[in-house]
């Protein structure tokens, strides 16, 4: 217990809910970092941790990141995150029972926390949670949800890339630009299609070569081996696979004018943002450009937005990035620092959802 206490004393969030899940021998942590702008929103992560304290720490850290992300996206939500820290990832009936116990806990919070999916949880799990509480977004189309957030995420990144190239040379025209998409998964494959339709030349890299090849064929692009990414000269490098790809070493070697993709936590070291700035490479802060999924599912399922409203909010990701870039240039700070400053301002505004 002293581990939990020590961790919580370092955290600036509002509420941490901790439940020992005797049935699995695991723990459930729900962290509400901020409800100032509205209910705390954020996914449910299911994971095996070395210790329960690591699970709590993840929920605390990720909930704070959600506050920043949702505030910069302009949504009337605060930041939250839930962690189901389990001894092993359950399946079948034990999984369903765990999800229902967790759903009852979410329901007991009376709408102050609203959940979606995260690592090791998907829309089928959200459908189970939905049986007990309406404070869920990202459930399946079959239950009236909006399904996978990959589509709106890809649309948001597309707008973000256009705003980024426009910041560099005044034109958001993509025709003739070389764009390398790393990760041909849910987001990367759809992004590649949007970019190709807008006339960009596409390069695709994926650990799974057949997946890269399939997407490259669809968009008339080329496959790049993942080991070649750092050596390949492009206008835009779009990381849509894993996080942690930019440290000070890779940031000093990457050969592109813009880094703009959906991957979460792209900066393995915060200083990598300064290295990119010093080299004149424009970095689109990940949580600003990848907010389309949250905007799409929250807008559709929780805010009752029409398709046009969702599309307008996705296009506004480009506007937000322009603000970030303007502030970064005016103040001589990295784009990551500029995004943080905007998030802090919005988080200290009076609640918009109250
Ligand atoms: P996905 O699992 O569908 O696809 C990821 C792809 O990346 C896979 O094809 C995988 O083989 C490939 N990959 C993994 N490691 C790689 C590497 N080192 N080099 C090249 N390819 C590699 O995932 P997704 O839903 O498309 O999400 C992509 C990224 O965007 C993730 O970081 C995710 O956290 C982030 N993100 C996704 C969403 C969303 O709505 N899906 C929203 C916000 C952020």
Report a brief summary of the structure.
With 354 residues, the chain is an alpha/beta fold.
Characterise this structure.
This protein is of the alpha/beta class and 354 residues long. Helices cover 46% and strands 16% of the residues. The chain has helices spanning 2-8, 52-72, 92-108, 123-130, 150-169, 186-197, 209-218, 248-253, 271-278, 286-289, 292-302, 307-331, 335-348; strands spanning 15-21, 26-32, 40-47, 78-85, 113-117, 178-182, 201-205, 222-223, 236-239, 258-259, 282-283. Strands 8-7-6-9-10-11 form a 6-stranded parallel β-sheet, with helices on both faces. The protein has a 5-stranded mixed β-sheet with strand order 1-2-4-3-5, sandwiched between helices. Helix 6 (186-197) links the parallel strand 6 and strand 7. Helix 1 (2-8) packs parallel to helix 2, helix 5 (150-169) runs parallel beside helix 12 (307-331) and helix 11 (292-302) packs antiparallel against helix 12 (307-331). The model has no long low-confidence stretch (mean pLDDT 95). The structure holds nicotinamide-adenine-dinucleotide.
Strand content: 15-25%
Main sheet?
6 strands, parallel
Q: How many β-strand runs?
A: 11
- Rg, rounded, reads 20 Å
Euclidean distance between termini CA atoms:
34 Å
Structural class: alpha/beta
User: What is the N-to-C succession of helices and strands?
Assistant: HEEEHEHEHHEHEHEEHEHEHHHH
Principal-axes geometry comes out as: globular
Mean pLDDT: 95
Low-confidence stretches: none
Approximate helicity band: 40-55%
The set of bound ligands, ions and cofactors reads: nicotinamide-adenine-dinucleotide
Q: Please state how the strands of the largest beta sheet are arranged side by side.
A: 8-7-6-9-10-11
- How many H/I helices? 13
